[in-house]
Structures are given as structure tokens and as C-alpha cells.
Amino acid sequence: MSGINFDLNTEGIQVVRHLQDQVSGRTFLITGPSEGGLGAETAISLAHGKPALLILVGRTLSKIQPTIDAIKAINPSITVKFVSTDLTSPKSVRQAANEILNDPSISHIDVLINNAAVMASPYELTADGGFELQFATAHLGHFVLTNHLLPKLKASTDGQTRIVNVSSKGSILGGIRWDDPNYVKHPEEYNAWTAYGQAKTANVLFTLALNKRLLKTKTGANRGIRSYAIHPGGIYTNLIRYMNEELWDEVKRRAWNGEEVPVKTLQQGCATTLRAALDPALEKEGGDGGVFLSDCQFTKDPEIVAPWALDEGDAERLWALSEELVGEKFEV
């Protein structure tokens, strides 16, 4: 495959057209595809590659319908299914997963893109479980969803099954609060950006733990299922709805050395997600240690992905903590 240099300026539609054979006829599931967001742009870009089925998972159809309409405008033959869930509620996520598992028209899932998130929100505990909102939305909801959907992912037979966890540079803002991840013991310690850092760190650690479990079976056979985490870049989407001048100043100081945040377009932002989801070359480029991409390329730069987010031991610790929090153990 030649003719494109993947970098910070690459656009999502370019990736899809370049890797169309990895899109055509395949089934994709994307969480958080609300209008104007990164998930929506990812889904709309995929529509240019003639996928067989796009499963869009979100809270309300009204927020997803514009994305569905945009997909149909590109290619009316693409089947689009909307599945409603509240990622902050393990009960709701299990119900959505069961709906997908029991749908005879969904024989398998080739690519799962865990995209949904909340950024720098005020302190809030979820109604179901009492989890910190950012940690629940970005990590715990996807932890439950992914594990429940594994039978459909394992049913994909083309050897290029992917699970993409949309993280960010935010991992450098804070690691996992092992003794108090939901700030219930010390709510006075809550900081919107540190909590965001915890959620984004969790995305990367979850990726490491998935690869340990999914790359090979207990007998050593290659399952053909690989997970990547990515930093899409700074993009103006509805994620910034909680932002004010104070929060902007804080994140610039903590993550960008006081400089202005470089901004990408939505098309540039979804390109890294799509390369992680589609490109067979990544397996060779990354080897066993490549799990995190930024600007469409692997990186371990500590200014982009925190060292604690790449700790194999912490990945296992987070898996156990997540099982404890959601009240369910998963044998992969």
C-alpha cells in the first residue's frame, strides 16, 4: 500500500480510501457518534469505503440521527443500526450488548471503536454505581461493553479484528487513583483535569490488558484481535462544553507548557482512529510493544502518553479494579 504518508495532516477520508479493502463489506461499531463529534466524523468517513454495517451506539437517537443521515447521503446502501445505551450505567450497557448479541442480522463485529467520552466535567457521581462521571463514561462503560461483545468480535474471521480505544494526550494529567478512583473518600480532591487524566490513562491500560488476553489463545494460537489506543489531537467538538477560561489556562499550563493548544480539524482528528482501526501494516510497525498512536504514528513520547499509562502491571491492576467496580468478572 503506497501513495500516502500518514502524519498529523492526514485526513480520515484519505485513510479510508487508501485502505478501502479493509472497510468494504465489514462491520464497525462506534460509541459516541453524536453530530459534530469525532465519532460522527469517523463513521461518516467510513461511509466512503462501503462498509456493510455501521452500528452507532449512543444515548439518544435525536443526537445520532444527523450522523445517520450523513452516512445515507454518501451511500444509501450501507446498513446503519442505532443502539441506545447510557455508558455511565453498567446495567444499560449490558442491555445494549445483549441487544447486539441477540440480533441475528449482526453475525460478527470486525472493528469496535470505543470513542465516547466526557472532558473536564464538574464533579459528579453516576446514578448507577456511584462512579466518577469521566471515569465511568470513557472507561468503565467501554470495559463492560467490550467484554460483553467479545463473542461477536471473535466471530470475525478475517484476522484483522481491531478494538480502538480513543484516549488522548490527557493521560499525562494524572494516573489511576487506586484507593479512591471515584473521589468518594475525598471529593474535595477532585480536579476536572486530573480526573480526565485518570480516564484517559485507563483507556491505554485497558488496551494493554486486552492485547495480553486477545492476541493469543491459551494454546498460543493467534486470534487476530488487536487493540490500539490513540491521541486524536486537539479538536473543537462538543467535548469542550464544560470549558471556561480557567480550565483552558490550566490545561495549557499542565499539558502544553503554557503554549496555545494546537488544533486539528475533525477530518485530521479522526485519521488516527481510522488508521488504528484499519491498517494491517501496524502489526509489523508496532510489533508487540506498539499500542499508542498520535498523528497516525506509534509513539511512546512521555509528553504525549504518560509512562504510567504503559505499565503492564498497572494494566492488570486496573482490570481487577474495573471488575470489582462493575461487579462482574470476565474470562477472555
Automatic annotation (TrEMBL):
GO MF term list = oxidoreductase activity
Keywords, alphabetical: Oxidoreductase
Show the Gene3D superfamilies listed in the entry: NAD(P)-binding Rossmann-like Domain (3.40.50.720)
In terms of InterPro entries, this protein maps to: NAD(P)-bd_dom_sf, SDR_fam
Domain of life of the organism encoding this protein: Eukaryota
One Pfam family recorded for the sequence: adh_short
What SUPFAM superfamilies does this protein map onto? NAD(P)-binding Rossmann-fold domains
> Which PANTHER family has this protein been placed in?
RETINOL DEHYDROGENASE, RETINOL DEHYDROGENASE 11
Name the family: Belongs to the short-chain dehydrogenases/reductases (SDR) family.
Name used for this protein in its record: Short-chain dehydrogenase
Q: Which organism is it from?
A: Sordaria brevicollis
